[in-house]
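Quick one, tokens below:
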């Protein structure tokens, strides 16, 4: 007999946690192996890698931060990889590969928490892996992959606090971990503040709806809203405001110690003002400027960045999936559709207001990663799941794998004649 739907929504059906954690571990290990394979083929810095590599070298030599326009955590992670593996291509990119592999596994876990469907969650993770973005950027020293990994960690912990049937103490701990992860994400790159604000929006809407219009809420929203309310508003403020500020601030301690500056809140505030001033003055490279509104439809690879281009089988099907989720939200509000639409749209539209003179295509990474989750959510309901008895998720996954295999030869910097064994971009 199938379990009652309301019971399942309430999280009272025992979840197969051993199977979930085994899949999580296997996804992490296999993704890391894929990123590691041939990582030394690109033995020279790619795109703006040199900026962060030189910054990491300066950290290791206790020379301070060479590029202080960004928060320090991402650069310290790169330096940690170099301390472990040396000043070589593996050392430069080790932190990115680890964070990228964790991101793939976290996509699985977050999707599972939303849908409680192992097959669709695994599909979302594999589509993320084959979407080119995470492969290319994990194999380059950058701040974006660590930032996204911490952001996704915060979002996963927040969703677990909403969805899982756990004791109040563990639920509150999950909220604290969520806030800490968002703070660490912002300590890599300030753009992580946008998903933190989106998380606050979700929390406030759920609480207000539950308090004032509870009789009109769908059952599947009543349960996370009740779970959130049971934690208490004061604890929510502590978890998603005080905790992120604390973890963000603590990330600056190594910077101050490396420059022999005593730690103080006034000094941290001064650093923030200096970062804000410098970030507005960064000119970048106008030759490869790419406006944000073109990113979802880009078809030309960025040759300077390891032929970076989103996998069309994921990117375009993902846009259709976002449209499906929006239509469903118009008819009936549901948490999975609401979250994926909110985090995709805010990750993209923030660039319409962020005061940067130059934007690059790789800034699309966070938004692009949510497209695979949107596909899984779109296929979780209605008549979209199968075509003539074949699962649509399997068709999309095979298409993504084929395109990824074609792109791999140049993304991975294979040497001739392997670089064009399946054909080359003109």
């Amino acid at each position: 007999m199938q379990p009652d739907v309301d019971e399942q929504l309430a999280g009272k059906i025992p979840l197969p946690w051993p199977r979930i954690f085994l899949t999580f571990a296997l996804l992490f290990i296999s993704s890391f192996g894929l990123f590691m394979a041939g990582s030394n083929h690109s033995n020279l810095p790619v795109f703006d890698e040199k900026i962060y590599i030189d910054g990491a070298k300066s950290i290791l030599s206790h020379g301070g931060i060479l590029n202080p326009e960004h928060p320090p955590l991402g650069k310290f992670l790169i330096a940690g990889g170099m301390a472990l593996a040396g000043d070589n291509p593996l050392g430069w990119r080790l932190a990115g590969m680890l964070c990228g592999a964790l991101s793939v596994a976290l996509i699985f876990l977050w999707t599972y928490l939303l849908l409680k469907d192992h097959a669709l969650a695994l599909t979302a993770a594999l589509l993320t892996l084959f979407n080119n973005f995470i492969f290319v950027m994990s194999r380059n020293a950058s701040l974006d992959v660590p930032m996204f990994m911490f952001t996704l960690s915060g979002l996963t912990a927040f969703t677990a606090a909403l969805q899982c049937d756990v004791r109040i103490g563990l639920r509150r701990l999950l909220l604290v971990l969520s806030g800490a992860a968002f703070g660490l994400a912002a300590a890599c790159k300030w753009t992580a503040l946008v998903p933190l604000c989106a998380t606050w929006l979700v929390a406030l809407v759920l609480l207000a709806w539950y308090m004032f219009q509870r009789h009109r809420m769908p059952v599947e929203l009543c349960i996370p809203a009740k779970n959130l309310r049971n934690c208490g508003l004061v604890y929510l403020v502590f978890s998603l405001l005080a905790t992120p500020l604390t973890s963000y601030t603590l990330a600056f301690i190594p910077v101050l110690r490396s420059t022999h500056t005593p730690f103080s809140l006034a000094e941290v505030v001064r650093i923030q003002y200096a970062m804000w001033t410098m970030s507005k003055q960064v000119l970048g490279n106008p030759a490869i400027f790419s406006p944000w509104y073109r990113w979802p439809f880009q078809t030309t690879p960025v040759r300077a960045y390891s032929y970076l281009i989103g996998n069309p089988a994921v990117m375009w099907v993902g846009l259709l999936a976002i449209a499906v989720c929006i239509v469903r939200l118009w008819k009936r509000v549901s948490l999975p559709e609401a979250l994926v639409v909110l985090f995709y749209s805010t990750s993209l539209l923030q660039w319409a207001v962020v005061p940067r003179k130059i934007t690059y295509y790789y800034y699309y990474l966070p938004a692009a990663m949510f497209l695979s989750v949107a596909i899984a959510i779109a296929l979780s309901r209605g008549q979209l799941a199968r075509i003539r008895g074949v699962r649509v998720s399997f068709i999309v996954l095979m298409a993504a794998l084929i395109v990824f295999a074609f792109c791999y030869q140049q993304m991975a910097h294979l040497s001739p004649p392997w670089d064009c064994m399946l054909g080359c971009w003109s």
